[in-house]
Amino acid sequence: MADAAVRGARKAGHDVETVHLSDYIEGMLGDCRQCRLADGSCGIKDNYEDLLVNRVVEADALIIATPLYWYGMSGRLKTFFDRFFCYTSNSSPHQDAVTKGLTNKRVAVVVSCEESYRGATVGLVTQFQEITRYLHQELVGVVIGVGNSRGEVASDPGRPLDAAEDLGRRLFDIRVTDYRIDTPRSNRVWATSPAAAGAHADDADDA
Amino acid sequence: MADAAVRGARKAGHDVETVHLSDYIEGMLGDCRQCRLADGSCGIKDNYEDLLVNRVVEADALIIATPLYWYGMSGRLKTFFDRFFCYTSNSSPHQDAVTKGLTNKRVAVVVSCEESYRGATVGLVTQFQEITRYLHQELVGVVIGVGNSRGEVASDPGRPLDAAEDLGRRLFDIRVTDYRIDTPRSNRVWATSPAAAGAHADDADDA
Amino acid sequence: MADAAVRGARKAGHDVETVHLSDYIEGMLGDCRQCRLADGSCGIKDNYEDLLVNRVVEADALIIATPLYWYGMSGRLKTFFDRFFCYTSNSSPHQDAVTKGLTNKRVAVVVSCEESYRGATVGLVTQFQEITRYLHQELVGVVIGVGNSRGEVASDPGRPLDAAEDLGRRLFDIRVTDYRIDTPRSNRVWATSPAAAGAHADDADDA
Amino acid sequence: MADAAVRGARKAGHDVETVHLSDYIEGMLGDCRQCRLADGSCGIKDNYEDLLVNRVVEADALIIATPLYWYGMSGRLKTFFDRFFCYTSNSSPHQDAVTKGLTNKRVAVVVSCEESYRGATVGLVTQFQEITRYLHQELVGVVIGVGNSRGEVASDPGRPLDAAEDLGRRLFDIRVTDYRIDTPRSNRVWATSPAAAGAHADDADDA
To answer: What is the mean pLDDT of chain B?
Structure first.
């Protein structure tokens, strides 16, 4: 699905770089007071800093792919997030660049999952919603494909590969809202709606 | 979206009846000890009994459509569920028929929503998952369309009408699982997977 | 539990009024274009307007009590929220007063529930979080008590009545945060922490 | 909070062993096809096998403590779960013992969290609910304490340390239910309820 989303983004004209977390992340977040180097840098010896500072921070959008493990993201992806801490805390020489660099991105998520019941992924969707809100990012979509063996989501009759490609293609076009009661807005969501004039949300209660 | 899902189900050869809750439900669940008639029947004067006993119980599947109001289903749809109680409690003459009739159905849900952020519908999806689990029903899918005025979801570039039609079409074909650790199953989800032989879930951690 | 929360709030010196929704709400949200009176007022004939305009809007805080029905709030409470719409839409003569009056309140929730597993109430907690966020309200706490017959939560060994009373007592004292990455804050949450000097969030990973 | 929960469990007469994940878990789940030893054992070089096979599997209950990192459990705790896979898959010599050993436990969770808004932990609670359901475990409770520096939850006026101690003390006494519509049960939850005779769930709708 990651490949499909990337394909979609490329079709839309975007430059995309694909990285595998296993090439960058070996160590988990520990006790910074023990790990931290004299200049405040993270002392964990792997390629995380290259990933975060040179690739993630520089990107305008992230497409995050993870299997569903134990009703959540993989431990490696979780570690990707946990270690943001070492680069955004007061002691880090990267604090300003990374803090600023993480915000205002668009984020799309694709999840492969052995099970197809909806409750399996609710906790994960909630978590991505909160993470992106905290970071002033826009969560543009989450596509879930059912499969267990590598590549098997291609056989999911729900066609998650098509959905992932579409998500990638519309990565910068998808409208994301998070209103409060006093947010000014029209009673039409879509400017070019073909719906008949006069229709109005007032009359929606005929479920 | 309800129309699209119905169209899909009809294309798959199913008989579909459409009902509007506002034609059947006027009263909310009250204090059964005061409302209940001498024979244990519900005394609320509207057409709910006809809806529940003659239509819902008789169906093999339900396609439920609701706007998202206050991050949940409409109060009328909630009342549809609340009043199950009066027909499944010990005092009801309908207890056995309704209790048995509610279980083992397939349930699809379509939601129209002004907002597009994912967190807006997480609580509702969770609730439908729990309701269907409690009733031994299978929740085959939830499609969410963004729109505010009547018919406006047709303009949602995420194409929820297509997704709703597809959900209706595959209503009885969608695979729903809810595994425990000791549930026997293959390491392939889809029998006819085109994925290369030898691929295996073991190697999924390269998100 | 509602009584316990009220008792707590009174002990803290607050004026509290208790209302039962069944005394105020009979009708569900319908099609405003048909119900609405000539001056834009809601035409549903019950005491909702008195409840909303004279009681809810005037309060500094709300303690909301509901049983868990079908993994959500009662249909009557849901209707309480649904009908906000008729008073905050452009056509309502109450729009400004009600919109302004609903915001900036503290909200506490107490839920009685037959079941004790945690997943039963997750959807409802999510929904209250979203509702209060939308309304610029502060959700100060949710207490869940297990019981099925009236008053039975008093026997719950988790002591929800004590928790509800405590919630009421601290209604205006509870600290509610919802940070973003750039929210300025100390690395200490509690000003008067007795924890040893030098301890720091950096070292929290020894779960 | 972990200490408080342990203290409670000890007061109730249970033998409790405390372990720190950082003493046992260094490596994350990788590609089993590359890591796995000739006899099917996990080849990751740390003390995880001792933890899982000799401690976790042998226990009757688990008290799991984690900080809330990025709206989820720590990456190290997530890795604790992810690596169950290597011991429950067909190739593992431990499969039967670990699979059987993980089920039918009681699980309590304590979470320390900088933020106090309820939505922050909803995803995590959902995830623990799903994990324990999958493993036929009983999730007896989740206690959330607010604090940022080590030990600071002691200052949380919500008294999470007391709640954690109580959770530990009642670890084997807490009633956990997960009903379906056809689950036989009384309309009283608590056998020794002091509530007045005649009260009944039928009349609960006066929220």
So the answer is: 92
Report the alpha-carbon distance of residue C45 to residue B66 in Å, rounded.
Answer: 24
Closest CA to A186 of B4, C36, B155, C82: B155
What is the Cα–Cα distance from D147 to D145, expressed in whole angstroms? 6
Cα D203 off chain centre by: 35
Closest B-chain CA to A129: B119
Long-range interactions of D47-51: CB distance < 8 A, separation 24+:
D47/D23, D48/D24, D48/D80, D48/D83, D49/D87, D49/D94, D50/D24, D51/D19, D51/D21, D51/D24, D51/D25, D51/D80
- B207: its two tokens: 């998100």
Give the pLDDT score at D28: 97
- CB-based contact A168:A160 (threshold 8 Å): no
Q: Is the pLDDT at D17 greater than 70, yes or no?
A: yes
What does the CA dihedral C179, C181, C187, C189 come to, rounded to 10 degrees? Answer: 0
Say what the ipTM of the complex is.
0.91
Helix (H, G, I), strand (E, B) or coil at B94: coil
| pLDDT for A205 | 39
What is the Cα Rg of chain A in Å?
20
CA-CA distance, B30 to A134, in Å (whole number)? 42
CB neighbour list of residue B59: distance below 8 Å, 6 or more residues apart: B17, B105
pLDDT tens for each residue of D157-167: 999 999 999 99
Copy the structure tokens of residue A114: 């052995």
pLDDT digits (tens, 9 = 90+) for D66-99: 999 999 999 999 999 999 999 999 999 999 999 9
* Residue C143, both tokens: 């207490």
Separation of alpha carbons B16 and A191, rounded Å? 33
Note whether A99 contacts C133, CB cutoff 8 Å: no
Question: Token digits for B40?
Answer: 């244990």
Q: Where are the beta strands (DSSP E) in B12-105?
A: 61-67
Is some CB atom of chain A closer than 8 A to the CB atom of B197?
no
Q: Return all residues near D100 (Cβ < 8 A) that are at least 6 apart.
A: none
Put simply, the answer to whether A181 touches C89 (Cβ < 8 Å) is: no
Helix (H) or strand (E) holding D11: helix D2-11
Per-residue pLDDT averaged across C41-58, rounded? 97
**What are the structure tokens assigned to C7, written together?**
């008792």
At what angle are helices B2-11 and B160-169 packed, to 10 degrees?
Answer: 40
Predicted local distance difference test score (pLDDT) of residue D192? 58
Chain A residues 23-62 with a CB less than 8 Å from chain B: none
Q: What angle do CA B159, B160, B164 make, to 5 degrees?
A: 130
Chain centre to alpha carbon of residue B106? 8
| Domain ranges for chain A | 2-206
Q: Transcribe chain A into DSSP letters.
A: -HHHHHHHHHHTT-------GGGT--PPP--HHHH--TTS-----SSHHIIIIIIITT-SEEEEEEE-BTTB--HHHHHHHHTHHHHHSTT-TTHHHHHHHHSS-EEEEEEEES---GGGGHHHHHHHHHHHHHTT-EEEEEEEEE-SSTTGGGG-TT-HHHHHHHHHHTTTT-------TT----S-S-TT--SPTT--GGG----
C neighbour chains, 3+ CB pairs within 8 Å? A, B, D
Cα separation, A177 vs A175, in Å, equals 7
**CA–CA dist A144, A122 (Å, integer):** 11
Contact D116 C74 (CB under 8 A): no
Among B31, D166, D117, D3, smallest CA distance to C125 is for D117
Is the Cβ of B93 closer than 8 Å to some Cβ of chain A? no
Distance in Å from the first CA to the final CA of chain A = 34
Residue A103 contacts C where some CB pair is shorter than 8 Å? yes
The tokens of A146 are what?
């059912």
CATH number (3.30.457.10, 3.40.50.2300, 3.40.640.10, 3.40.50.360) of B2-206 reads 3.40.50.360
